[in-house]
Amino acid sequence: MLDKILFLLCLASALADERCMPDTPHGFQVRLSIKTALGDEAYVWNENEMFLFRASLAFAMRNHMNGQQFEVSNIIVCNETMRVSFWFIVTSPLDTSQLIDQENVEAAIRQSRNRINSAFLLTDKTLEFVDILPTLATLYTHPTPPWLIVFGVVMGAVGAGIIIMLVSSVVQKKRKTNGKPQDKDDDEETRVKTVENGDAHDGVHNMSFSEDERFTKM
Amino acid sequence: MEKDARPNWDSPMQFVLACVSYAVGLGNVWRFPYLCQMHGGGGFLIPYFIMLLVEGVPLFYMELAIGQKMRLGSIGAWTAISPYLGGVGLASVVTSLYLCLYYNIINAWSFWYLFHSFQSVLPWAVCPINANRTAPIEECERASPTQYFFYRETLNISSTIEENGGIHTGQALCFLLTWVITYLCVVRGVQSTGKVVYFTATFPYVVLFIYLIRGFTLHGAVNGVKYMFTPKMDQLANPTTWINAATQIFFSLGLGFGSLIAFSSYNQYNNNFERQAITVSLINSGTSIFASIVTFAIYGFKATINYENCLERTRILLLNTFNLAEDTINMDNVFEWIEKLNATYPEQFNEIANDTGNCDLEKELATAVEGPGLAFIVYSEAITNMPLSQLWSVLYFIMLLLLGVGSMLGNITAIITPLQDFKAASRISSELFNGLVCLFCLLLGLGFTTTSGNYWFTIFNDYGATFSLLFIVLIEVITVSYIYGIKRFEKDIEDMLGHRPNWYWKIMWVAISPLLLIVLFVFYIVNYIMGGTPTYQAWDKEEGKSVLTEYPVFGQVFIALLLVSSVSCVPLTALYVFCRKRKHGKAHKQQHALNAVSA
């Protein structure tokens, strides 16, 4: 009797091992880059760490499929490499010959990704579930875009500057016109002078003086 | 008399700083390093300096002399020199107008980037996530985050020049801001400009110096500087090198726009502009070299980072494919491992062979970019890799802004000064007139903020001012040397400075500079004709990169219009003056005849 039970157990475990293999349609490949993430503080990957992994996966499965009591033994791992990568499949707690399909496993991992990552002090990039895309965190969207605020400040300052300049020049002109009635007589005299000399700011006249030099054939 | 006196600079220093601020512009930062890289690194300095001495300084000297003597803007000054050639001044004004229309859009982009630097994560450092939160936006993935930010979020560019869309409101707001600032700087003419240039001329050097220190302490910067300064002397045999050196000097000094004439027209009559001309030209060239050292330090940094990222990707790929332990391959022995693995596992290696072994530092360094692409894409990418990137970003874009606004002041003055010399304009107050000019340019320039605006910008940038300037300055030099007469010009300078110009200047003005300009002119025409249909870089959204596209017919017609409209001012004005003189001559003859009869 005992022999039969032993035989069946071996068969069962052998069967389970066969279902877990690279490129299995029911499981995923996991890749850990511990040294990249932690550098000098990297821990060594050993059986205990593997046990933690299986436990956290079981936790994730429990969270996702409510009611089903997943145990560590339900997570089967195989093909461990030096890279620290391996494949895993998940069996149903109710019937170990049944495998949980990929979609459920994926959904469970997605849901508890953060918890699994933090158990290993890793991130989405360094604890890689191949073919499961991490849900990327969107950047915080501000209610008012910050650039608009800075723009408003600068625009306000420049606008104020312009208004000050314009107002000050208007004030200056008013002061000039207030002082003007006294100078009106002087102005008339100077205006006559300027007419006599030709237009003061029409440079053409100055040049025509030397231009005549050219044309006078003396 | 007092109220009609011409405004003056408060001191000669203001004038020098205004010229420096005008001449030192964006071209020193984004065009010269590119030319240096393309034409043999340190060796390019030889043709550059030769052209500076032969073409740059003499022409600069000449323009300052004209302005200071005539004390008028470009239209008035050239009309005074020779009434038939007043069209040269008009052509300058038209070209300056085109420049004003499109130049401020660059400042608008600088403002946009500056305002977006005030965030914890620079928006061009990471790709935004798509709606499903599964991956970054496709366009961003195919291109790079910096390119995506520039083409999509800043410009919202369409795929060709024919497709049009609405105005980008953010852009339009920044554009409005740049025009408001420009107005603030020129509102009172030289009085306000003179004070602003103290800041716009000096602060960019402060930033460049800070960046020099930062650049040299960056990892891998020395690679870039070494690459730039290793002279490749064989490039000197290439005539394009010399042509490019001449063109760069020419455009960098801002000759022909009328800005220099306008600035110097506000000088005191006896101002020593000879020394100032030499000073400003040397400062301009020195700044170009200084800026390119900084640029190449940054290039070296960026290239090294890209190279190391490429190595890292290859390393991870090898680790993942062959399931090796993490610390077996590190950055130094990636290439050894590639060979080893290729030998031991050839089939497996073949699968990934395409993605490995293409990390090349030389190739990264050789990617040369010029123009807005350098300033807004390459530089901003380098900034995201620096620690404290927000600070560096703010500093950098403030520098770009100051360079751009400084040049804009010269451009706007080149339009305002000649127009204000007309009696019609002097009836309106100068504040109102300046405001009207700025408003006009603002409204027309809003077209560059539309989705196809960048393509129109490229048309203006490439064709608006290049060809016409060569023509204008050629006519200028020939007019001064032959029509006005070099002897008269000499006497005028002696009148102002107290001594005659050296024989060197005279040789340049009479012979060498016109000859050089004719060569450049012919080269441009030949290049344009041989180039076939003009093309532009259109941004392909699907591919995530720029695609060379031909201009449609209306684009080519517009280019022709741009070129013709400024160049034709010269013959048209000559014709107009000729006709008017003939009419006046006829009327005078009739008058004389009547007087003779009546007397």
Describe this structure in words.
The complex is a heterodimer of chains A (218) and B (599). With 218 residues, chain A is of the alpha+beta class. In chain A, 56% of the residues lie in helices and 8% in strands. Chain A has a 4-stranded antiparallel beta sheet with strand order 2-3-1-4, sandwiched between helices. In chain A, helix 3 crosses helix 4 and helix 3 packs antiparallel against helix 5. Chain A is rod-shaped and about 130 Å long. The termini of chain A are far apart. With 599 residues, chain B is mainly α. Chain B has one domain: Orthogonal Bundle (Hydantoin permease). Helix content of chain B is 72%, strand content 2%. In chain B, helix 19 crosses helix 21. In chain B, 48% of the residues are buried. Chains A and B meet through helix 2, helix 6 and helix 7 of A and helix 5, helix 6, helix 9 and helix 14 of B.
Q: Which residues of chain A sit in consecutive blocks of at least 5 with pLDDT less than 50?
A: 12-16, 189-203, 210-218
Question: Helix segment count of chain A?
Answer: 7
Compressed to H and E, one letter per element, the order of chain B equals HHHHHHHHHHHHHHHHHHHHHHHHHEEHH
Number of domains of chain B: 1
Number of strands of chain B: 2
Distance between the termini of chain B: 39 Å
The largest sheet of chain B, given as strand count, sense and whether it forms a barrel, is: 2 strands, antiparallel
- Strand fraction of chain B: under 5%
Mean pLDDT of chain A: 77
CATH topology of chain B: Hydantoin permease
- Helix count, DSSP H or I runs of 4 or more residues of chain B: 27
Q: Give the strand order of the largest sheet of chain A, numbering strands 1, 2, ... along the chain.
A: 2-3-1-4
Looking at the overall shape, the CATH architecture of chain B is: Orthogonal Bundle
Strand order of the largest sheet of chain B: 1-2
Could you estimate the helical fraction of the residues of chain B in percent?
A: over 70%
Q: For the report, how would you describe the main beta sheet of chain A?
A: 4 strands, antiparallel
Query: If you compute it from the alpha carbons, what radius of gyration of chain A comes out, rounded to the nearest whole angstrom?
Result: 44 Å
CA-based shape of chain B: elongated
